[in-house]
Design a protein that fits this description.
This protein is an alpha/beta fold. The protein folds into 3 domains: 136 residues, no CATH class; 115 residues, NAD(P)-binding Rossmann-like Domain (Rossmann fold), CATH 3.40.50.720; 264 residues, Rossmann fold (3-Layer(aba) Sandwich), CATH 3.40.50. It contains 21 helices and 22 strands. The strands form 5 sheets. A 9-stranded mixed beta sheet has the order 10-9-8-11-12-13-18-22-21, sandwiched between helices. A 7-stranded mixed beta sheet has the order 3-4-2-1-5-6-7, with helices on both faces. A hairpin with a 5-residue loop joins β21 and β22. α3 runs antiparallel to α5. The chain is elongated, with a radius of gyration of 35 Å.
Length: 627
C-alpha cells in the first residue's frame, strides 16, 4: 500500500512532478493523434525532427508558468477548489502561449513548426486532468491512511445545500474524525431522489427507515439560515428515534472564518426553544443610542452584559457599565476589549441603593439614557430576605429614577419581569412596586420612564437551564418542583433586542409586554435536556419532583386580570394597559416601606408591600398568613 508521509513534500519535488506529468500528457496527445498505431515509428521517423526543437520551449513555458502560478506551493494533502482553480488558470496560460508560438515559422523562423494545434489542445486537457487528479488522489490516500481507526459513526447531514456540502468536505478531509457520511436529508421536493457527490438526498421520513436498518448513528444539522420551527421538528424527530443530533455553528462563529470538524457540537436546548430572528427598527435604535451617553445598571449580569454588546454596535458616545460584582464586570471588560477596537466604555463598581454613589455617577458622566437592569431576581432567596429585595429592587430603582428626573435624562428604561404580574412572591412584588413608582413619576417628569416586562431568559444566571446542565454533569437527578410547572422562555439576545426596540419607541409611562411564545413545561424541558446529552431518562438520569419552592407559581403571566394590551408597530411587543397611581400617594408608601428597612422585621416589610400591591398573594410561603 502507498504510504504518504505526514510531513510536507518538498516544493522542488512537486515542481518536478508537475513538469513530468505535463511531458506525459504530451506523449498521450501524440498517442491520441495517431490513434495509438505505430506510434514509436511515427514519432521517431516523422515527428521527432519537428518535436526536437519544440521540446525545450515546451518544457521552459510549462516550468515558467508553474513558477509564476506557484502551483507547487500548495500542500497536496489539503488540495481544495482554490488549488484546482490555480492549476487550471496556470495550464491555460501556458497553452495560450503555445498557440501563439504556432505561426512563428511564417514570420520569424522559416521551416520551424512548434506543435500542431490538435496536439496542443489534447495536451492541455490531459495536463489539467493529470495535475488535479494526482493531487486529489494523494489527498484521498492521505486521509484514508491517517484516519482514526476507532469505530466510525454513520451520519446523515440535514441540509443538502452549500453548508451541507462544506460539512461533508470538512468531515472527509479531517484525519481525526470518526464520521462517515452516508447521505443527506432535505425537505426540498426538488432535491428528493437526487445525488450530491454520490450521496443520496432523501426527505425527513427516510430517517426512520435508516434507523430501522441501523444505518445511521447520528444526524448533523447544517443549514445556513434555518427556520426555528423546522429545526425544532427535525430535532424532535431525532429525539423520538433516539438518534443523537449535532449542528454546525453559524458562519460568524467559525474560527478565523474556517470551519473544522471539531466545531460540530451537540444541539443545545436553546436550539429547541429559539424562535424566528427578530427584525429591529435599526433607524429608531440608532437615534436613541448613537453619540449618546448610556448608563447600564447591572452591567455584569446576563441581560446587562448582552445589552452592552448590542449597544456598542450603535456607536454610543460613552457607555457606563455599572455593577457591584467585581469579577463578572472585569470579565466583561476583558471580553469587550477583545471584540471592539474603540474602548468607549467605563466600568463603575457601585451599589444602586447607595444614593451618594449614584448621585456622583450622574453628575460625573451625565447619562442621557439609562437601562436599569440591576435587581435581585432569585425568588426563593428573596422570599427569605425580603429586606434586601426592598433595598435593591425598590430603593435602588427609586434612587436611579429620582436622579434621572433631576438630571433631565432623556429615557429611563426599566427591565422588569413577568413575576411582577399578580405576584405570589417578594421578588415579584418588589419589581411591581418599582414599576408603579417609575410609571407614577413619569407623569410629573420630562424624562420618559419606560418599563419592559418579559419572562425567563435562557442561560441567565439562576435560570433552570444552567442548573439542569450542572445536574446532568453530576449524574443527576434533575430536580423539577412540580409535574405541571410551566415557564415562558426567551433567549438573552432576543430579550435585549426587544428592550432596545421598546426603549426607542416608548413615549413614557408604558409597560411593554413581550411576546414570549408558548409556555414550556419544565418537566418536558428536563426530559429533552437528558436526551440531547445522549442519555436515557430514568436509566441514566432520573427526574425528581421536589415540590414548589416558597413563593413559586405553577405558571407565569404577562398581564393580570384587570390588564389588557394594545399593539405596536412590532409584532413581538405589546403595550400593557395597567392601572395608574397617584405619585404623591405612591411616594409616601414607598418611602415608608424603605424607611422600615432598618427594622429588619420581615412580616412588617411584606405586609407593607401587600398594601401597595393588593394583588400580591403569597404562595407556598410563610407570608401567606398576611393575606
Amino acid at each position: 500500500m502507498i504510504r504518504i508521509p505526514k510531513n510536507n513534500t518538498p516544493r522542488s519535488f512537486i515542481f518536478i512532478q508537475d513538469v513530468v506529468l505535463c511531458l506525459f500528457a504530451l506523449i498521450v496527445a501524440y498517442l491520441v493523434r495517431f490513434d495509438f498505431v505505430n506510434i514509436d515509428r511515427i514519432i521517431l521517423e516523422k515527428e521527432w525532427e519537428v518535436l526536437k526543437p519544440a521540446l525545450p520551449i515546451y518544457i521552459f513555458v510549462r516550468a515558467l508558468s508553474f513558477i509564476l502560478g506557484k502551483t507547487y506551493a500548495g500542500i497536496i494533502r489539503h488540495t481544495g477548489t482554490q488549488d484546482a482553480k490555480r492549476i487550471f488558470l496556470t495550464v491555460t496560460l501556458g497553452s495560450i502561449v503555445f498557440m501563439a508560438l504556432v505561426p512563428i515559422r511564417f514570420y520569424f523562423y522559416d521551416g520551424f513548426f512548434f506543435l500542431p494545434l490538435p496536439i496542443i489542445f489534447v495536451e492541455y486537457l490531459v495536463s489539467v486532468f493529470l495535475l488535479i487528479t494526482v493531487r486529489i488522489a494523494v489527498k484521498l490516500i492521505y486521509v484514508e491512511q491517517h484516519k482514526s481507526r476507532g469505530a466510525t459513526q454513520n451520519v446523515v447531514i440535514y441540509g443538502a445545500g452549500k453548508m451541507g456540502l462544506i460539512t461533508k468536505h470538512t468531515i472527509e478531509k479531517d484525519a481525526n474524525t470518526l464520521y462517515n457520511v452516508i447521505g443527506f436529508i432535505d425537505d426540498d421536493s426538488k432535491k428528493k431522489g437526487k445525488l450530491l457527490e454520490r450521496s443520496p438526498i432523501k426527505p425527513t421520513e427516510a430517517l426512520e427507515k435508516w434507523k430501522e436498518k441501523k444505518q445511521v448513528d447520528s444526524v448533523i444539522i447544517s443549514i445556513k439560515k434555518m427556520n426555528p420551527n423546522n429545526k425544532r421538528k427535525i430535532i424532535d424527530k431525532c429525539l423520538e428515534l433516539g438518534i443523537p443530533v449535532s449542528s454546525v455553528p453559524p458562519i460568524d462563529r467559525w474560527m478565523n472564518g474556517q470551519f473544522s470538524a471539531n466545531q460540530i457540537q451537540r444541539v443545545r436546548i436553546e436550539d429547541l426553544l429559539g424562535r424566528k430572528e427578530i427584525k429591529l427598527s435599526e433607524e429608531n435604535i440608532n437615534l436613541q443610542i448613537k453619540d449618546k451617553v448610556i448608563l447600564i445598571t447591572g452591567g455584569a449580569g446576563s441581560i446587562g452584559s448582552e445589552m452592552a454588546r448590542q449597544i456598542l454596535k450603535y456607536s454610543p458616545k460613552k457607555l457606563i457599565l455599572l455593577d457591584q460584582a467585581e469579577s463578572p464586570i472585569y470579565e466583561l471588560d476583558m471580553e469587550l476589549r477583545s471584540k471592539f477596537n474603540e474602548c468607549n466604555w467605563v466600568i463603575v463598581i457601585a451599589d444602586v441603593a447607595n444614593y451618594t454613589r449614584m448621585k456622583n455617577v450622574f453628575e460625573s458622566f451625565e447619562p442621557q439614557v439609562v437601562f436599569h437592569a440591576a435587581a435581585y431576581k432569585h425568588v426563593p432567596l428573596m422570599e427569605r430576605n425580603p429586606a434586601e429585595a426592598i433595598k435593591v429592587n425598590i430603593q435602588g430603582t427609586k434612587i436611579l429614577a429620582d436622579l434621572a428626573n433631576e438630571n433631565k435624562v432623556s429615557e429611563f428604561v426599566m427591565i422588569s419581569t413577568d413575576k411582577a404580574v399578580n405576584p405570589t412572591n417578594v421578588m415579584g412584588a418588589s419589581k411591581r412596586i418599582a414599576e408603579i413608582y417609575t410609571q407614577s413619576l413619569n407623569k410629573e417628569s420630562k424624562t420618559k420612564f419606560i418599563t419592559t416586562r418579559f419572562g425567563n431568559v435562557l442561560g441567565s444566571n439562576g435560570s433552570v437551564i444552567p442548573l439542569f446542565k450542572k445536574q446532568i454533569e453530576q449524574g443527576g437527578p434533575l430536580t423539577v418542583t412540580h409535574e405541571d410547572v410551566t415557564r415562558f422562555f426567551m433567549t438573552i439576545p432576543e430579550a435585549c433586542q426587544l428592550v432596545l426596540e421598546a426603549g426607542s419607541m416608548g413615549k413614557g409611562g408604558e409597560i411593554f409586554v413581550f411576546d414570549m411564545g408558548e409556555s414550556v413545561k419544565i418537566k418536558d424541558l428536563a426530559k429533552k435536556m437528558i436526551q440531547l446529552s445522549g442519555l436515557q431518562i430514568d436509566t441514566d438520569i432520573e427526574i425528581k419532583i421536589t415540590g414548589l419552592r416558597p413563593g413559586e407559581k405553577l405558571f407565569e403571566e404577562l398581564l393580570n386580570n384587570d390588564e389588557n394590551t394594545s399593539p405596536t408597530h412590532h409584532d413581538k411587543i405589546l403595550i400593557g394597559k395597567v392601572r395608574e397611581y397617584n405619585l404623591t400617594e405612591v411616594q409616601e408608601k414607598v418611602e415608608k416601606l424603605i424607611n422600615s428597612y432598618s427594622s429588619q422585621n420581615n412580616n412588617t416589610l411584606v405586609k407593607q408591600m401587600k398594601e401597595i400591591v393588593p394583588e400580591f398573594k403569597s404562595n407556598n410561603s410563610i407570608f401567606t398568613k398576611l393575606d
